Amino acid sequence: MQVERGREITGLLRRALHALAEEYEDSTGILRRAGYDAHEKDTILFGLLCLIVPLCILVTSNSRWSSRVVPDVEYLKRFLSKREHFALMIQMMMSCQERLKRLGWCPSATTTVSSRQFLIMVLSNLAQLPPVVLPTASHVRCTKQACELYTVWDPDAYVPRHVDPSCRCDRSC
């Protein structure tokens, strides 16, 4: 019974991954035909991926469903290792990077976060969170390689400030 259920679940996940890959690659997919623009389509597909990928991880980590007994487990493992539907995984990572960038995250942080497979399970949560920066800070000078937020560009003009603007002590704290 467990094996049959495993085959059913892995088969459904495989079909879901195929459908998502087709939708990402096809400019005439069902979402486009329904009138969704590219941003709306991306939002929907990103949400579905953030639901389906953790399920794939859960299924492939179930020790009762070996690839010998449930053949699609091996397929899901290849997907998670980016050997199957590579374009789909890349699209998901790019969607995450763009979403985090729009929220004000540092470009170097978005690259780091979205390149780590284990974080796929939490990408949808990250995409809902604001970046951790001071209200007056900006990541304008940051690149994908490095965060420049706290770099002192002109040491002669640098003046230490208090973390709390209402503090009037003689030290910088």
Walk me through this protein's architecture.
The chain has one domain (2-126). Helix content is 51%, strand content 0%. It is an all-alpha fold and 173 residues long. The protein has seven helices and no strands. It is elongated and about 75 Å long.
Structural class: mainly alpha
N- to C-terminal distance: 64 Å
Number of self-contained structural domains: 1
Please tell me how large the radius of gyration is.
22 Å
Number of helices: 7
Helix percentage range: 40-55%
Strand/helix succession: HHHHHHH
Shape: elongated
Largest sheet: none
Mean pLDDT: 76
Instruction: Flag low-confidence runs.
Output: none
Number of strands: 0
Strand content: under 5%
Brief descriptors of the model:
single chain, about 170 residues, mainly alpha, 7 helices, about 50% helix
Concise overview:
The protein is mainly α and 173 residues long. It contains 7 helices and no strands.
